[in-house]
Amino acid sequence: HRPSLAQGCQFLASRNIVHRDLKPANVFLK
């Protein structure tokens, strides 16, 4: 059993939380 899917979901979820903590302007700069 590869936990890649579970880890991927956790990774994306954690990234979303981090991006929400960042200023929205940072997203628009990209």
UniProtKB/TrEMBL annotation:
An annotated Gene Ontology molecular function: protein kinase activity
SUPFAM superfamilies in the record: Protein kinase-like (PK-like) (SSF56112)
Domain Protein kinase: 1-30
Domain of life of the organism encoding this protein: Eukaryota
Name assigned to this protein: Protein kinase domain-containing protein
Stored InterPro entries: Kinase-like_dom_sf (IPR011009), Prot_kinase_dom (IPR000719), Ser-Thr/Tyr_kinase_cat_dom (IPR001245), Ser/Thr_kinase_AS (IPR008271)
Matching Pfam families: PK_Tyr_Ser-Thr
